[in-house]
Here is the input.
Amino acid sequence: MPRVSFERIHKTYGAVSILKNLDLSIDHGDFLVLLGPSGCGKTTLLNMLAGLTDVTDGRILIGDRDVTDLDPKDRGLAMVFQSYALYPTKTVRGNLRFGLASARLPAPEMDRRVAWAAKLLQIEPLLDRKPAQLSGGQRQRVAIGRALVKHAEVLLFDEPLSNLDAKLRTEMRLEIKRLHEELNPTVVYVTHDQIEAMTMATRIAVMNGGVIQQFGTPDEIYERPANLFVAGFIGSPAMNLKKARIAKRDGLVTGRFGNGQEIVLTDYGFARAPQDGAEIIVGLRPEYFGPPDAPVNGAAAVFDLPVAHTERTGSDATGYLRFDDGLLSLRVEPGQAARLAGGQKVRVAFPPGKANLFDAATGGRL
Amino acid sequence: MTDIASAATIGATIDSRPIVRRRKKRITGRSVAVLVFLTICALFFCVPLYVVLTTSLKTMDEIRQGQIFALPQTWTLEAWRFAWFEACSGINCNGLRVGFWNSVLILVPSLMLSVALSIVTGYALALWDVRWAGTFLFLMFMCAFVPFQIIMYPLIAMTRSIGVYGTIWGVAVVHAVLAMPVLVLIFRNYYKDIPQEIMSAAIMDSGSFWRIFGEIILPMSGNILIVVVILQLTSIWNDYLIGVTFGGFNTQPMTVNLANMVTVSTGTASYNVDMAAALLTAIPPLLIYFLVGKFFVAGITAGAIKG
Amino acid sequence: MSIRWTRVAPQLALSPALAVTMVAFIGSILWTITLSLTRSRRVPDYGIDWTEWSRQYARLFNDDGWTIALWNLITLGIGSALAIVFGFILAAMIDREKRGESFFRTVFLYPLAVSLIVTGVAWRWILNPDMGLEATLQRWGFEGVSLNWLAQGDTAMYAIILASVWQSAGFYMALMIAGLKSINSEIWSAARLDGVGLWRLYTEIIIPMMKFTFLTCAILLSLGVIKAFDIVLAMTNGGPGQSTWVPAYFVINALAQKQNLGYASAAAVMMLVLTAVVFLPLVLLTAWQARRRNAA
Here is the structure.
């Protein structure tokens, strides 16, 4: 039985439509990440689940309960906010207890839960401090603790890491993942950061313009993006998307790029047999290219291209080659990057079965 | 006069010391001119207080000599005693203390009613999602400017019909009603700055309007509460019109008592008593002003601008 | 569907304030407007004769007392405007010369903490012709000085203006200081570098930048003048004769002394109209500012 489901959700503010006919459901213990650029409706969707925003039309179910018209506190949820939203006049302990006291839990049970959460999040020494006396990371832990003590069926996170610096963000990412594995709650997590999504999620819903573009596991999203938006949004450096035309001859299907280069697509799992001459867009992930100038064996495509420039990003490097009228990016070993001089021609190969093809007109996956 | 002037300059130097310490400013001719002008203005502002104070400490004989700026030759508190215990307001000759205690009695319920009504309204308007809040706020904004006279008779009729006209409670209710629009706007503007996420968190944690108010919002309202209480304290204490209209014969506040004493005085006027009475009436708000002036100024400017 | 307390509770909490607004403000205003159309005298009489609904208003505009009250209102308004000018000068000086800022602020603002009744008593005493300031000044050799303003109809308003300027100048100073402080400090430095004279700096740069502060002050002043009652009562009690009557005083007088409810109501309605005339620019101003803020 699904734990959380949205059924035919509509949301409009005045004449502006934020969400259109949205369906989504996840199972118990799932870690769902709602991923998308700002303004895509992901936070609105989360707030609707929380009960902080009204639903214009449709139903929200948690377990088998219809919670569409319930007050937030009756929905069995807990939420962690972007700004942490700790109560400034209460101590950490007071922050953790407020929700429990409101639910009229007996005092020993409250103490037990606070102690449990404090131990789990290593905030025991902070219990009697006020939020103003805490660092950003500590506030974040308290905010998570405040959500955990409620033993809610579903935990909501609204961009909880976006106010932390990069190092703390990595730390808290692992922490949240550890908590999910340990406690196994159902989680709905909103972010615009694809690394957070890829590392933590068991399910990702990529949203844009109030519509879910793709819903699937991180691997599915990454390897088989459902359309051009997902293909371009997920992955860094971004997938190379190049216009091409289908060319069929001698039982061989190829894509011919504007500059005459070709890629063999015979082994691509077409949903429908492509027509000769159809305009397509070929998506090539930068990291699937073989090392430059390495011996080629059974590649789908081999390009000889001049180097434009290279970029070193710590453990990785990206090479940019001139391709058609744009650039083709590929991941290279940092050691090799130094050897790629501008203007120098290199030979790169793309392996078979890794290309993504999209209809140039609709943007949908072929 | 020279005493006041020197006192004023001493006050000025003492006062400015912490400001000057940061970066010693060169004293220029222009600075001196400005300071002299400001000091003269300060004297103009202080003259009435000085005159009233010295007059209240003189005997009537001395006053008749017509030297209003002179210090008393014989200092006496007789006028103060008389004003407090024996001065007549109408046919009542029990002094100003009657009005003082009436004012205190009026103050307590007025303050509680007006603050309670407006803090809850401001909280609900600012932090809860009520569809007609915007319209209501606009309506209240307009009401903040309505002259008292246009609602005066209906308020008399209404308080009379519920039996509080002419009592302390009548005065308290009318104070609460008249102060409500401005105070609501002050509270609402203050609460509007509380981050929405804190409210969202509280709504998910508790969802109880009153629990969130008592445990989260009220502890965050310390400063604005002080500002509003002081604003109300002084304006209720200094009010005349509501007191004279809604207070009963024996429940009139101090200002009304004072006005009666000085305007309807029978026989020869005792200016020393009048001045002592005026000072007695002015002392409570002046004390508040000199003790917590910062909050007082915040209150009147907030009430004026945000209203 | 279950009751959503997060929807219901705030509406319940707002209901007393809503009731107060609807009954004590909106309802009362309509009530007074109704009364102003009737012949009510001591007790309300709700029969409206529609053929001559405006009789109270017609009477009002033929009443010398009302005419005097309106003229006095204008005099008081113009005279009190001195408080804004005075307040600005004080604010500019305090703001430039930081020495003694809080001392001077404290001194200039204390009259505001005092009841207007007390203010009136104090100034009446100072203006006392036999024993007050006039006597002292004459003793000092200023023989021609006459400060017996309160006894004469044509000067009594000046005494009221003096007292109200004394009382309110500090208030406008506080508003002006807030306005001056919001001006970017770089403006001062820039002006100094450009060698702009003080007079030109203020008239051409600072005052235009503070036009909203001035407008706010002007509107607050106008609203305050329309409501002015206590100071008139304490200084002159409307006298001598009717010479210092103002609309607020007129209404109370018609109600309390003449016991003419319909007539008092008509005058009160005129007060509301005057307020609306002043209030309208304020609403437009707020709307305009809100739009500008949204655009920014």
